[in-house]
Design a protein that fits this description.
mainly alpha, Amino acid/polyamine transporter I, two-stranded antiparallel ribbon, 2 strands, 1% strand
């Protein structure tokens, strides 16, 4: 049983998938970098920065972003080695299958579903808040019952009714983006690249203009004293915030899910990963510093904190329309890349037999995994319409951290078990980098609240039922191994 649970997918079969892919190979390194920036620069800057500063880290949210960026830097280098070596859809799922075995791959694939589907909902909720603010600029006020979630979790575990009906704007954006993803990767990439240029321009304008109105007194104390509760300010609050905002770095995993649609994977994937990481981390640090300098951190607990901070200064209110526009554009690109990524993970798992084959279908004209895209978009729409941003963000963060830790471990394992494999890109100092990736991700995951871990455990238990009830009986790797045993004298 042990050998079958940990049976690995051969690199020969991965190479075969790469050569015989039906997906459209149209992405270059700049487009991949844009996908990474498009998925990474969004909720972290426009939503979570203010919330986490107000509730957990204070002005030290800057340190939280540095810690999260450092953890992602280690993991990102590991992703780059794997992505160049095994350029197929599936990201961390495929990498784990080739190194740690089927059960570990299932675990991480199931975890990635939690990561991407809930992330789409999280970002869509933030988009809905900014869309409401955008309409208010023109004197249009939507009823609160149609812009808020009908469910809430005041203690992190129980679910209560809020009295609201549905978050209509959040549901609408996920449906629109799902359609764009259904149409094709080339169209999706073009839309994303245009949006990225717009939102980065807006962010740079905000940083440049806001820097002149920063009040250094708002940075004192830089690390507010802990309240006596773990995660509420002090260094534990800095770590808690870093764990939650790590969700913002999900874009790096998303880049690798498009590997089979990349023209030169061995160069384009490492370039896109590392360039996106550098750009995003710098923008996060600068924006969080300016934001907490413009307004006391205690006043930033809002789903639209950038708009709140700018509106507190008469000289900066002219930027509010640009902020709303940039946030809408930025969050749209995040939802787009998340749905793209999740659909391709479902595609990879279905090709391996771990999910029903319908998820592996590729549209004859659009050359996209259309069934997987529609299912992903449908689930994301439900999440966005029904649940608040807090629950969703923490779930996504823990999913991202687990995925990054497993990729970091897999690279180190493969260096010793398969040293002969060709590696177009190699992680420097693997013991340091891989161990750093695992260690930082574990530290940030442990900083998250207990209720987040409980929800993860429940999700994984559901996954075990699916695996032992369906996946192991339909696994192509198992079937090939069994056939090989029969043919071996």
């Amino acid at each position: 049983m042990k050998s079958k649970l940990f049976i690995t997918k051969s690199f020969d079969s991965i190479a075969y998938e790469q050569v015989h892919s039906q997906l459209n190979r149209s992405l270059g390194h700049w487009q991949l970098m844009a996908l990474g920036v498009g998925c990474t620069i969004g909720t972290g800057i426009f939503v979570l920065t203010g919330v986490e500063a107000a509730l957990h880290a204070g002005p030290a949210i800057v340190i939280s972003f540095i810690i999260a960026g450092l953890a992602c830097g280690f993991a990102g280098l590991c992703y780059a080695e794997f992505a160049a070596m095994a350029p197929v859809s599936g990201s961390a799922y495929t990498y784990s299958y080739a190194t740690l075995g089927e059960f570990a791959a299932w675990f991480i694939g199931w975890d990635l579903m939690l990561e991407y589907m809930f992330a789409s909902g999280t970002v869509a909720v933030g988009w809905g808040r900014y869309f409401t603010a955008f309409l208010e600029l023109f004197g249009i006020h939507l009823p609160a019952a149609l812009t808020n979630a009908p469910f809430a979790s005041p203690d992190g575990l129980s679910i209560v009714l809020t009295g609201d009906i549905l978050n209509v704007p959040a549901a609408a954006i996920t449906l629109l983006v799902t359609w764009v993803c259904y149409v094709g990767i080339t169209q999706s990439s073009l839309v994303n690249s245009l949006i990225v240029v717009l939102k980065v321009a807006v962010i740079l304008i905000i940083i440049a203009a806001g820097a002149f109105y920063v009040n250094p007194d708002n940075w004192v104390p830089f690390i507010p004293e802990n309240t006596g509760t773990w995660g509420e300010f002090g260094w534990s609050g800095v770590l808690r915030a870093a764990g939650v905002i790590f969700f913002a770095y999900i874009g790096f995993d998303a880049i690798t899910t498009t590997a089979q649609e990349t023209r030169r994977p061995s160069f384009d994937l490492p370039f896109g990963l590392i360039a996106a990481l550098l750009v995003c981390t710098l923008l996060y640090i600068l924006m969080s510093g300016v934001l907490t300098g413009l307004l006391p951190y205690t006043e930033l607990d809002s789903a639209a904190p950038v708009a709140v901070a700018l509106n507190a200064h008469d000289e900066l209110r002219w930027l509010s329309p640009f902020v709303v526009f940039g946030a809408l554009a930025g969050l749209t690109s995040v939802v787009l890349v998340l749905i793209l990524a999740q659909a391709r993970i479902l595609l990879a798992m279905a090709r391996d037999g771990l999910l029903p084959p319908i998820f592996a279908k590729v549209h004859g004209t659009n050359r996209t995994p259309h069934v997987a895209t529609l299912v992903t978009g449908g689930v994301a729409t439900v999440m966005a319409a029904l649940f608040p941003i807090g629950i969703l963000a923490e779930l996504v963060s823990i999913g991202t951290l687990v995925a990054f830790a497993m990729v970091s471990a897999s690279v180190l394992v493969l260096r010793y078990t398969r040293p002969e494999l060709e590696r177009p890109f190699k992680v420097p100092a693997p013991w340091l980098v891989c161990s750093g990736g695992v260690g930082f991700c574990a530290l940030l995951a442990l900083s998250l609240p207990l209720d987040t871990w409980l929800r993860l455990i429940i999700w994984m238990l559901i996954g075990l039922v699916v695996y032992f009830g369906y996946s192991r009986h339909h696994s192509k790797a198992r079937q090939e191994a069994a056939q090989l045993e029969q043919n071996t004298p």
